[in-house]
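haha ok so turns out i had the wrong file open the whole time. this is the CORRECT one, sorry everyone. sequence first:
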Amino acid sequence: MNEEDNRPDFYNRPYQKPDYSPDHCKRQLVMDFPKLYMVDITAIASFHQWQYAKTHKSLCLIMAELEKTGPDSKQPVDVLLENDDGLSKVFEVRRMVSKRSVGKKLQNVPLPLQIEVDFVNSTMEYLHMEQEKQKIECACCFDNSEFEKMAQCMEGHLVCVGCLNSYAEEIIFGTGKVTLNCMAFDCQTTYPESELKRCLEPKTWRKLEERSMAENLSTANLSNLFRCSQCEFAAILSPSVKMFRCLREECQKTVCRDCGVDWKEHEGFTCAQIEKKDETALRKEYEEKMTKAKVRNCVSCKAEFMKDTGCNKMTCRCGTTMCYICRKSKIDYNHFCAHPRDPGYACAECNACSLWTNPEEDDERAVAEIRKEANERRKALGFLEDKIIGAPKSPKIPSKAKGVAPVPRPQNNVHIIGGFVVNQIPQIP
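then structure:
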């Protein structure tokens, strides 16, 4: 405080009966603390014998305790207060469900009360300035935060918990690797697990653990690993075990490990008996094959993906490369044809895969082969050929220039599908 300020210290001076009424004191405090119930404000003001400054200080302490429970928490807090008579009392206070609407500044405030109000405001402003001086700049958003609300990477760079939580949510619900690198410029280190657990929201931390565990299991290439179809739970089953039971308390799903049918329907029957050898089973079998024909799987981490746009050299989030056409893994651009030819036509000199093709045409070609095989099998079993297996073909819009093959072009905006990043403009050797 300013040394030239001759005003008394209303926080620490001995008790003096206020020169203003309790009603004036209460009205000012109700306006100052719109998130506290009036009955609590009245009780604490009465405990401090209607001294505005001392009551204000106690209510600030209570608000600080309420903030620790969370911004929207309805949980009450117990605060021990002491008054000028040496009496101690525990007050149970809770935050209002909705903020109280307050009017404009009080009119006709008694001068003694206004002096105390000015003292409190100047003290609060001074404390706020001192707190701002002690804050640290976030390496991401460059805003200032208290040290307790900062996360520290292995190299000591500090970011605020708000930036860290936003970054973690993008990583968790994205398709890349679940690795939280430091957000400071030109720093490639990570955050210690203890820091992440301390700074992340509980829900975000649990999801991060689940994603990390799922990614580690995928890259471990464990045999006989079975995943629950409804949650992230996974377990290694003995080859002799037929039934899978999810051990998650909120899930508890039981299925056949081979066909995925609920065990309540499956128990006592073989998979063939459950599926039934009829036309519906045939259609289901080949429609599943059609779906698999459109979906590729990484040989390293088993991630599934479909290409949207871009070239046929795919790079998984785990770093494994793969050809989208022939599905060969660990390739480079030498895998693809480098001979000059008309765009959209096959090479006359080699049988290597083309770097640029239309993904829809590739998938339709594979699906058409499976549909043909399904129709031949259905005919051999004596079923009528009046049903289409799989989705019907979309009608093609005729091109204005007939006979002109489509020219594949590099895509400026590339989507990330299933954890794979499509290269935009490759360097062809």
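Residues 394-429 have pLDDT under 50 and may be disordered.
again sry for the mixup
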